[in-house]
Design a protein that fits this description.
It is a single chain. 78% of the residues lie in helices and 0% in strands. It has 121 residues and is an all-alpha fold.
């Protein structure tokens, strides 16, 4: 149980730190629409780091890798949808929708990869 909790927390931390860096480094104007290359690049990076987060959660937990990566998927997706609803009109809709529909489910890929590598398939 403790490994599960630590795995999920560590996985989410991987994703959260990456998300902060992805949006902090370009130094874009906060309320200006971002350029389309940033939209594409940030979504692709989000997918990669979400997959890594799912992998980390599954690797630390050691058992039931898809369940632990699903927990990451749910946390990322719920945070994105919660932010979209709570901050409607104040946050970029594209970012929250991309996170909920593309980025969050990518955590399952990380769990699947971990399951295959650990021979748990």
């Amino acid at each position: 149980m403790l490994r599960s909790v630590i795995g999920i927390l560590a996985g989410y931390l991987v994703f959260a730190l990456a998300a902060v860096l992805i949006f902090a480094i370009p130094a874009l104007e906060p309320f200006a629409p971002p350029p389309w290359p940033f939209l594409i690049a940030s979504t692709i990076l989000g997918i990669c780091f979400s997959s890594l987060a799912g992998y980390v959660a599954a690797a630390i937990a050691r058992r039931r890798p898809l369940l632990h990566s699903l927990a990451i998927t749910i946390i990322i997706g719920a945070a994105a949808l919660g932010t979209l609803i709570a901050q409607w009109g104040k946050v970029a809709v594209w970012s929250q929708l991309a996170t909920a529909t593309l980025v969050a489910p990518a955590a399952l890929l990380g769990g699947w990869i971990r399951r295959r590598r650990a021979g748990l398939a």
